[in-house]
Amino acid sequence: VTSDTSKVGVVDYLICCAKSYDLEQMMLELSPCIDRATVILPLLNGIDSSETIKNIFPQNEVWEGCVYLVSRLTEPGIVKVTGNMSLLFFGSNEGTHEKLNQLEKIFISAGIEAKLSGNIQQTIWEKFLLISPIATITSYLNTTIGEVLSDAENKSLLLSLFAEFRNVAGAKNINFPDHIIERTIDKLKSFPYQITSSMNSDFQKGKRTEIDSLTGYIVKSGKELNLPVPTYDRLYEELKRRSSKL
């Protein structure tokens, strides 16, 4: 473990687990660890991290992935896991088949519940459906996931976010299963009642947030697609106002 990239040397696989607002700077700092053969796998919240990395390292294989994990950095060097899910999905439509299988074996041999997805875009969007609306609403209301689901008015607001999100995804040719909203809510119900989103935790601590990746992306996409997302618009404007005061 080191913060000095010059001590690491060139790596075969580079797994990125940063906040979205730190991604570009982090990739530049990690450039001594990357040559043309290095595979880069971002495991960030949001949907556009691979595109960001490809703009910086266009010659490299840049895969896609996501993680289901409820955890918090409680103090330097200490991460506390509080949820009951621990899953990692990754894949690539253009990645080298042998390298994809090799990394899956590396993950599994390390005790990580990892799965090589045959349709990683679909997998990532299904996770984004889970985190974007819940990060937005818990931050807007400054409340927990349990309190959102147990209050009729709050849940109605959440369902509006889900509907707008699904419309945007559909316009991008992402087609969810018929009961995806119900399944997503069931996942949220499995979380501890007092858990909130990491974005809301960052708001509470006065830290930078992933508002642009988690909320703003849907607002931006709605405008690009000429698709109304009024609930997202309203909550995003309020969250931006709060962000400007942090």
Helix content: 40-55%
Which strands sit side by side, in order, in the main sheet? 1-2-3
Low-confidence blocks of residues: none
Percentage of β-strand residues: 15-25%
Separate helix tally: 10
Radius of gyration: 18 Å
The average pLDDT is: 94
User: How would you classify the helix and strand content by structural class?
Assistant: alpha/beta
> How far apart are the termini?
31 Å
Q: Which outline best applies? A: globular
Total E-strand runs = 6
Major sheet summary line: 3 strands, parallel
SSE pattern, N- to C-terminal: EHEHEEEHEHHHHHHH
Summarize the helices and strands and which ones pair or pack.
Elements: E1 13-16, H1 23-29, E2 39-42, H2 49-56, E3 61-62, E4 64-75, E5 78-91, H3 97-109, E6 114-116, H4 120-141, H5 145-150, H6 152-171, H7 180-189, H8 198-204, H9 211-224, H10 230-243
Parallel strand pairs: 1-2, 2-3, 5-6
Antiparallel strand pairs: 4-5
Helix pairs in contact: 1-2, 4-6, 4-8, 4-10, 9-10
